[in-house]
Structure formats: structure tokens, C-alpha cells
Amino acid sequence: MSNQLSCLKEEMKLIPEKSKDIREYLMYLGYVRHFDEPVTIARAYAIESLFENHKKYIYANDLVAGSIRGKWSCDLMITEADSQHAERVVRSYGFNTFLMNTDHFAPDYETLLTEGIEGILGKIRQSMEKYQNNEEKKTFLKATEISMRAFSTMIGQYGDAALKKCAEIHEQKPNLLKISEICAKIKYKKPDTFHEALQLVWLAHTAFLYEGRLAMALGRMDQYLYPFYKRDIQDGILTKEQALALVECTLYKIGESAYSGRDDVVNIAIGGVKPENGDAVNELSYLILEAVKNCKIPGPNLSARIHCETPDEFLDECLKVVGTGLGYPALMNDEVNIPALYRHGYTIEDCRNYSMVGCIENFITGKQPPWTDGRYNVPKYIELAMNNGRCMLTGVQLGPETGEPSTFTTMDDFLNALKIQMEFGAAEYMMFFRNENDRYNKIAYAQPFLSCFCRDCIERGLDINNGGSIYPSVHGAGCMGIGTFADSLAAVDDVVFNKKLISLQTLKEALLSDFKGYEELQSLLLNAPKYGNNNPAADKYAVLFVTLTNEIFSKYRTRDGGAIYTAIATNVQNIPAGKQVGATPDGRHACAPLSDAASPMHGMDKNGPTSVVNSVTKPDYTMVSCGTVLNQKYSPSMFTDPEKRAKLLAMIKTYFKKGGQEIQINAVSRDILYDAMGNPENYKDLVVRVSGFSAYYTSLDKAVQLDILERTEHE
Amino acid sequence: MKGIVSGMQHFSVGDGPGIRTTVFMQGCNLRCEWCHNPETISFKPVFLYYKNLCRNCGLCQKRCPQGAHLMMGRTHHFNRERCNLCGECIRYCPAGALKISGKETALSEVMEYILEDMEFYSSSNGGVTISGGEPLCQADFTAAIAKECKKHNIHVIVDTAGNVDFSSFEKVLSYTDCFFFDVKGTSERDYLSKTGGSLKLSLENMMRLISGGCNVVARIPVIPSYNDSENDCNIMAGLLNQVGVKQVHLLPFHRLGAGKYAALGKSYPYEQCVPPSKQQMQKLADIFAAHGFESRVDG
Q: What is the pLDDT of residue A197?
């Protein structure tokens, strides 16, 4: 860790005083002077006010300026009545929701860096001339110009603030002088050095945060910054250590999001292939890994893109970082993601240049509108198929009447009913999405600043959500509960139709009573074949899950003709989603959590990680264009011991070779082991591997568990 | 062809190079006091009841035709004498608290399990380890597994204490890439008292294997206050030098088997025994290295 980072960490421990967030008030100051103007222009002035009027906070030990502390500090006297009035105005102009394509975006930083603000403003001018007879386009372009100029002013102000900070602390700190010098240049001119380039990107990111956007990605940092890095190193004006310190001080400020009470997810993609093909790993890829490791905060959501020619050395470095307990980088398989995107008609170069937004969502960097997604609760439709379309928790008729289970004589009958329920559910899902997504007039809701970071909004004179972007908007339907789904269908197949131990009608009654009085049946269901054990009887239903959801959502398009992707990744929402689902045929109780993402149901994978991999890779994940999450846990010794780490590396490479899309790994920390002792039911799959014998942690004696805990501490 | 198998385990990372599948054979002719796989000792299947996982739901009592499971109030009691290992209760246990170790298993079933992970063996230079129990007590079955593995070009390790007639080795050696050979004492008397076997027999077998050109690794379980002194290591190093073995793996004693003793209804004599520290293990490994061995701490 650089000395600068340790100093910055110390300085940032001081939490800002929690006065009111003045973002809305600053926007109001912009709107209030332009009520009579077209709404697009009024919006641009609101952005201008946000950028220019927020207080520019500078950390004395920082190397790269740009902080969101200004949201909570203000020299203006604002009374409660003032802010209420401001709020009324701002809310009237409307605010953005997650279903409106406003955040989860990977900006086109490459163009910003090669052309600078000067270049972008020039392009806006050119476009204005080109469209001088088109009022709508001219208005939009004027709005982009206002917001871009405001951004330029904001950069200059950060430079001034750095100088002011020197005066404040009575010390001419060289780092702050450097910041002021850089800001004075890049507020207009294009950056020439690594430091200048990084500063410009970070201030753009900061500007997006002031706009109120979440989950804005930094994209392929190791690619767009590399030409600057390489040149500076060659010219002898930058050392590796200095570069590391710069990246550390930049990324550590992602942690400022904690001041507002929640961690932001800022995705950064490293590695992968170049747009023209060939391995893209470079010195910066390693440097970013190192910086993220040293920052040790949850915000930078690091994604390492892996392809068949990724050097083992790079993957090994990734595993070392994972082993620190951070849980990232998440490992992404280019060999699946690129074909998964290519299906949708993007050029192959754009597919190869993909990055991720939010958690794992695949994104065509800087060429499509921001992301939207939602949750499609698939196990709910098993419940409806079992109960003739009625909710088992409330009795409400939620789906079509597909028949009482007593009328189903084969597994296919049941699957047909299920498919009808799923199709209906998807139609309802799309209705909710469309209604929300269409609610807002695309002209009135223009996003002039963001549009400057998406190709070819300026050239076309159109907003990012109004046809400006090269590609149309896409939407990700997060298909939940693949494990619950596969296990439930496998149990019905096995217990009802194969072994004929009970009738489907009895199963329905058992589910309706949440297994009360049906405990023996529940045990039979729990002991039926489970997804995650390389058991074809269960895995074939995971394959069905992926193909069926893809088939159902392929029928739909977004408002501007883009694809509806599926995702087998749902954050931690398997828990709240489970609360909406009655008991399921896999033996799961009503309202209990669903299986998480693409992982097997908690505790049901009893055959070790290779079997999980064998199961999980059976579906064709090139159909899942948004992305997958597979969570796995390993003991810390798998990462610290180089020989064992090599085994883990071989495991991951095999997973990817077999068509796995993504994997994220947790080194099991002491906290988890403690928790597992107290709550063994949540950790049935936690395997501790030692010597020629391995054990489920929860099946061990308390003394032995403590023993392992102690051992873990040594490593 | 069939054998009695205690269990099979994918992704074994402590049983040799790379990612391996380990087949644990049921039954052993030694009685090592510290044994960490006590469920594999008996040649007959044994029943394990994990009290700490049991939810006391009473479903096993309902299903057991023998009356081996009894609910007394809210507490489950298991009467081992009554159990005839029919396994009916296991199908109904919702908690995974009931298990049987030792199942008559067809060669085809073992191979099917092994072949599931072919891609992992090749990507990691791994393979299959046949362990136990004592795999050479079922030498014909072990040989059959090894032979099938070689047909698929899978690397095979046989993990043995080697207290068997050499004819058992002869059955497997042409299909075995490497023997993990346990060395469990410094003198004939010690070996007999702690394991019930013969040190001399095991060393003779080891020597014959090596002189026959087999790849042999000596694996020494380091048991506190039994064979963990510097002197003990010097003696073992001397013995192994005579035998001609080049590689030595030291395996620290651990207590992970304790839960299985409880599940078998047995007392565990090493309950209070403290595992050796990492530093101590490294010191002992260094002694072997000083004697010219390629030595390491494993496990």
C-alpha cells in the first residue's frame, strides 16, 4: 500500500457532519431561473447548478480530486421551508427510477480522454451547425453544451479548491499544487499524462454521482488508461509506485458512498480480450488488482475477464486477491459472454470491448442506454401450476386456470401447465416494466450530460434515451431460483411420476399445509435428486430453466427495439423473493429463501465443487446475455498455499472451458466459521478440507470446530 | 465385480497432486489408535448417527422396522444393537444425521463416479487415490479400479499402510503410478502396540516395491508424544534410508475424526491430544531434509 493511501484512509475516517443532502436544492437553483425555457434546457441548467454550486471538497492527502462530501456541506443558509419548496419544484420536473434507463452505465471514457472537453464541445458545435434547421435537436445539443461547460467549470473549481486547501492548512503541499495545475489544464484541454487522464475520468464519475446516479461503472480502466500509462513510463515521468498510489487514491474514494448510508457498486473490468482480439492483460490490469486489494473496501466491484489465452499468472493474482476475503474480482468468462452478446447483432469488436455494470450485467461499453432490470420469480409459477393459478399464501387467483394437479397424468402435463403460468407471469412482468419505462416523455426527460458519454448522441443530435445511442436499450429479466426450480421438478418427477410414492394431489395438499402433517413426505422430497450434484435427473431441469426463460423473454423487445436479456443472477433478493413463494416440491418451506443466483440450493450440493461445476455448466449460458452468478466458498488455505491455489486455478479454468459464465469465490473467514457454529442449518455445504479426509464443518464436534477456527487464524 | 466402499469424494486436494477423486475402501487390518477414519475400520457396514445434526423429529422412529430409533420425550436415542442397517430411516431423515459407511459397490458404479471428473484431472494433473480403510485388504477390487483408470489414462495413487502379504501389492502394482505408504512407528514394539501391525512387514514390502521400480512416497502421521520427537524422526529417517525411499510427507495429527467416533458410539482416545504446530511440523520436515529426503508437510 502506498503511503498516500494510508494517509488518505486516515483522513477519510472523519465522517462528514450529517447535515441535509443539498442536491435537490442545488438543482432547484438551476430550474428556478429557467421556468420558461423548454424542459430539456431547464434540466441542463439544473445540472449546471449542481456541478458549479456544490462545495468542492479536497482531502489534504489526496492525489486525485473529486469528492461527494459537497452534498452535505453548503455555505448557503437554507431553511427547512426553503428545501421543502425546492423539493416541490424538483419533484415536479420528475425524478429517475431504476426502470427508466438512468444509471448502471459504462461511459465512453475513451472518447473523453482522446478528445478532451475541448473536443467534445467542438463536436457539439459541429452538430449544432449540421442541425441548425432542427429545433428539437438544437435544443438538445444546447443542453449538452450547457452541461459540458458546467462540467468544465466544475473541474476548474476543484483546481482552485486544491489551492485554497493549501492556504487553509498553511502548507504548500505538492500533491495539491499538482491537482490545481492538472485541473486548470484538463478543464478544457485533452489530458496528456496518466495522472491527467485519471483525474478527468474521476471527475466525470464524481459529476455523475452529483447527478444522483448509482452503479456507474468505470469500465475497462486498464485499457483506456494504458496508452497514457505506457507513454509516461517510457518517458520516465511516472513510476509504477506512483501510478499505484494514484489509482489507490482514486478508487478509495468510492468508499465515500458509505457516508450516504449504502455502498455503491462501481464495476471495473480488467483483463479479457482486446476489441481486435488477443489478450488484453497489461501492467495496469495487475496494478488495478493491487490497488483494489489495498483499498479493501466493498465499493469497487472488480470484474476480471478471463478467456482461453489469459495468462495463468493473471488468474493466480486474481485468486490471491480473492483469498484476502474480499470476494472479488468476480471472474467472467469471455468465451461465453462475447457470444452471448454477439447474438444480439452488435459488432464483434463492440462485443469484445464489453464491460460490466452494477454487479455482473454485461454491457456494450458507452454505446447503449443505461441498464434496467427486474426480478422474475420463477418458483412462484411452480406454486401456481400446482394450485390451478391460485396463490398458496393468499388464495388470490394470480395466474390462469391451468387445471387441478389431479388431472395431470404425466410429468409433461405438469410441465405444460407450468409453462403457461410462466408465460403469463412474463407477460405481467413485461407489462409492469413497459408501463414504468414508457411513463416518461423521452424529450422532457433528456439526459444531456450522460448523453455526452454515449456514442453517437452528439453526432445524431439525440438524447441517449431518444435514439442517440448506437444500440437500443436492453433489459435484464433476473430469473430467480434455478436451484429451487430444478430441485422441485426433479422431486415431482422422482417421487410422484417415477416412484409413484404419492399423487400430485397429495403433494399439493402437503404444500398448502406447508408440510404440517406431511413430514415424511417432506423428507422424501428433500432426499430426491438435487441440482448441483452432477445428477442428470435434477440437472436436466436446470437446462430447462435456462432454455425456457430465454424462449419466453425472446418474444419481447424494449420500447426502442432492443433485446430482453435473461440473467441467472439476482443479488441477495433470493431471500425477499422467497417470502412471496409458498412451500415448493423440493421440500422447501413456505417463505424460506429461494436458491441463490445460479448456485444449487443451499446445502443441497453434497458432492463437492467439481460436481457443482459439472451441474452448473450443463445449460448453454450463451443464451444468458445479461450474466450469471455462481457463488462458491473455499477455506483460506486454498488461497494461501500455492499448490492448493494451483488446484483451484485448474478448477476454475475447467469450469470456464466447460462453458461456465461467471464465478465468484469467498475465502471462508473466521466470522463465517463462527456463524456456522451457531447456525449450522445455514452452512450445511461448508466443507473444511484437510489431510486425506474432509468434513462438513457443521457435522464436526464443537471442539473440533474451534480447532479449525484456530487453525484458520494462523493462515 | 463388487467391493465394499465407505465413500467416494471428488475434489480431494490433500491426497496427492492435482484435483483427485478419492475412493475410501471399507475395512482395515490395523487398529491405529489415532485413526481419523474410524468408520472405515470394520469390514462390515457401520451405522453413523450424528447427534449434533439430529432435529429430534422422530421420523426415523416411525419408519424403523427394528425399533432402533427411539424418541424419549423430545430426545432421540439410537439403539445400535437393534439396527440391521436396512437404511430405511436414512431416506426419511430431513437433517442428514443418519449415514451408513460401507456399501457393496459395483466396479461400474465406482468408475462412473470417477469418470465424472475427467476434465478436472487433466487440467490439474490430478487423478484418483484409492484409500481407506486398507485398500489392499480388497486387493482384487482395488486392482480392478486401478486397471480401469489406466484404460482412461488416469493417474492412480494407492494409499496403504502396507501390512499385507506382498502378493496383494503384486495385484495392483502394474496399474499404480504411485504408492502413498504410511510409516507409523519407529520400532516393532511401538508399531504393534499402537496399530496392531508389523513395522517389519511394512518396511519389507516398501523395499520390494522400490527395488521393483515402483514410485513410493513415505507418509508419516506425526502423533504427539508418540513419534514427534527429533530422535523419532532421526530413527525413521534411518529406517527409510535403508528402504531406499526418497520422498517423505509428514501428516500432522488432527482431531477432525472426533465427530465420527461420537457418531459411531465409540469413545475417542485422542480427544485431549493437541495437534502439533506448523512450526514444529516444519522443524521435523527439516530433519528429514537433512537426511537427504525430499520432505514436506502435507495435509
A: 98
